[in-house]
Amino acid sequence: MPTTLPIEKRKTYTYEDYAKLPEGAPYQLIGGELVMTPSPIPYHQDLLGRLFFELKRFVEEKGLGKVYPSPLDVYLSATDTYQPDIIFISKDRLSIIGESKIEGPPDLVIEILSPATAYYDLRIKKDVYEKSGVKEYWIVDPMQKTIEVFLNKEGRFDPVGTAKGEGEIRSSLLKGLSISVKEVFE
Q1: Do the domain assignments include residue 44?
Q2: How far apart are CA 128 and CA 112, in angstroms?
Q3: DSSP label at 51?
Q4: What would the DSSP string read from start to end of 69-130?
Q5: With contact defined as beta carbons under 8 Å apart, do 29 and 80 qualify?
Q6: Close Cβ partners of 8 (under 8 Å, ≥ 6 residues apart)
Q7: Is residue 18 part of a domain?
Q8: pLDDT, tens digit (0-9, with 9 covering 90-100), for 102-159
Q9: What CATH number corresponds to the domain at position 62?
Q10: What does the CA dihedral 142, 147, 153, 154 come to, rounded to 10 degrees?
Q11: pTM
């Protein structure tokens, strides 16, 4: 028997509506729509784990801030609350970490593409991240075995690095962070 959402069906939803969903409900609020995001496949989670481990280790060793894996709500506007795969928040912006959600754009967002989310990650969410002030955005493509890095310059994401299959990806935001692409996709 299908379960019903604890909110009435309407055209545009807000964070207030989204917050009424049960904890762990597989939805993101994207442009005022409740978008169901199915559970990721094991390979997606392997990639997430490898990237999270490398990023967290680097950030903790340097005392740079906090790193979180999904699912964790990131509130960007009344109609946009996402659950990026991995986020980094610098130590001087830790005040955006609220009791139940991140209240503003993280400094770094990493999205791992999947068939169910690629359209949103590459288009809608990327535009919102750009406009809301995310400083660096990584797109990880498991099918192509690529990682692309974008840096926000004056409200626009500029590509600053791409690696496919091998080589290293470097962060412009986290100076000294270098991750082997081959090790991520092994």
Answers
A1: yes
A2: 17
A3: H
A4: ESS--EEEETTEEE--SEEEEEGGGGGGB-SSSEES--SEEEEE--TTTHHIIIIIHHHHHH
A5: yes
A6: none
A7: no
A8: 999 999 999 999 877 777 888 889 999 999 999 999 999 999 999 999 999 999 999 9
A9: 3.90.1570.10
A10: 0
A11: 0.91
